[in-house]
Amino acid sequence: MELKLYDTLTREKRVFTPIDPARVRMYVCGPTVYDFAHIGNARPVIVFDVLFRLLRHLYGESHVTYVRNITDVDDKINARAAERNIPIRELTDETYKNFKADVAALGCLPPTVEPRATEHIEEMKTLIERLVKSGHAYAAEDNVLFNVPSMPDYGQLSKRPLDEMIAGSRVEVAPYKKDPQDFVLWKPSKPGEPGWPSPAGIKGLGRPGWHIECSAMAWKHLGETFDIHGGGIDLVFPHHENEIAQSRCAFHTGVMANTWMHNGFLQVEGEKMSKSLGNFFTIRELLEKWPGDVLRLQMLMTHYRQPIDWTKASSTEVSGTIDTWLDAARLSKPAETYANPTTELIDILSDDLNTPEAVSYLHALAKHAGKNELDSQNFTNNVVFLGIFRDFRTEVQPKYKGASLELVEALNAVEWLRRTDLDLERLAAILKREAEFLKYYNKRRPISEALRADFLLVNKKIEERLAARAAKDFKESDRIREELATMGVILKDSKDGATWEVAR
Ligand code: AMP
Ligand code: ZN
User: Fold this and answer.
1) Which residue puts its alpha carbon closest to atom 15 of ligand 1?
2) Would you say the CB of residue 433 lies under 6 angstroms from ligand 1?
3) Which of 26, 35, 41, 106 to mutate to test the pocket of ligand 1 (most atoms within 8 A of CB)?
4) Would you say domain 268-418 falls under CATH 1.20.120?
5) Which overall architecture, per CATH, does domain 4-263 show?
6) Sign of the CA dihedral running 305, 306, 311, 317
7) pLDDT tens digit string along 207-239?
8) 35-54 per-position pLDDT tens digit
9) What phi and psi values does residue 490 have, to the nearest 5 degrees?
10) Burial, 100: exposed, middle or buried (Cβ in 10 Å; 0-12, 13-18, 19+)?
11) Range with lowest mean pLDDT among 155-164, 185-194, 468-477
């Protein structure tokens, strides 16, 4: 089936044809880094991650370039850094680091490029100079403004009536504007604010407007025109409309991107998220209550263009689904779970990323999967492809630093699907003891769930005993030794810890 995507510019679902199939290019507006990202911000990140995965599958991993920027120059950033009395770069670095960790926990692959606005000031200035030269922009009182009437077909993306656009841009009405719709490309910096030498013959230091940042970064990393531009629906006007105006006028092109995609908004418990209503949640806060796979699946249960009402009840329900799905994945082999989805899943996703349909399909697959290895493998491959469960080969195994796959597999049959952050030192100790365990069990038969549970319990007790010994609590350490003996486990102490055997 061909990939079809809904395009906001033409208001229709269209067959997607890349400009160059060997280099499919997508740009998505990223976060402004001044505070933890909220669950609404997670929506475009997850939605376009699914699209990234699909494009990589269809065109080949090395043929897709996904750019998601970091806006690290902004009034909100300046204000927050001043409030916390820390340097701006410290605030943006810290926030960016938190953002990366949060979205990784939500199963999102890193984009191909994550450009920072402050590292692209020269490109922004080049664009601004071009726009001034071609009569699309002008300097006024140390600002540079884009002159909207200079572009006769301005406004095609949002298709707003002119009076609405004027009203929408009125926030920034200033006496030096030639037209009330004109928007800022560059503005002067006050003392203490970040600033760079200005373009267009302006003397003092200044900084870019938000819209020009994306035009410049998209140009630098994807070229003058590219395939897909995405973001939340709130960005259609004015942000994306203005990106289009800047890029098309600077490069004299008919389009900036061929397909414009926008995710719907997310509200919480039936209301717009707001701190004063107490329904404002950061990704970090939600991750304390729910594993990332629950949050990701919850997001994918609604089609990306529909609004989502995010509720606690839904998280609880999805958590139950994940338990069922883990059970369905039980018979699959981690090493084989390389992104290898079924054709059915790809067909469903190729219809404008129909993730709710994909979830129904997975529910149906899960019904058989717990009983038979092949079904379990197909099921798992699909869930891994969607980024809900972990890809063992690329995400988990590299972190085990050479531990034998057989041991890791046996020990973490279910855990590997959910976690990439297992404690390596602890794991090494467990694996050493596991070797003993496998000597007795694995040769003859695979480890059953019950035995595996026992095994984990034994390890926990051994660790408790080692801790007691380290604290010179020999009474407790002897008690645990006895307790293990009653379980049929014989301990052997040595210089570097303890090994154990199963009593015969
Ligand atoms: P911002 O940091 O506000 O520029 O937002 C970053 C991204 O998150 C943009 O693509 C926004 O459209 C998107 N976004 C912000 N709030 C929500 C929300 N409540 N629901 C869905 N997307 C959102
Ligand atoms: Zn943008």
Assistant:
1) 41
2) no
3) 41
4) no
5) 3-Layer(aba) Sandwich (3.40)
6) negative
7) 999 999 999 999 999 999 999 999 999 999 999
8) 999 999 999 999 999 999 99
9) -105, 125
10) middle
11) 155-164
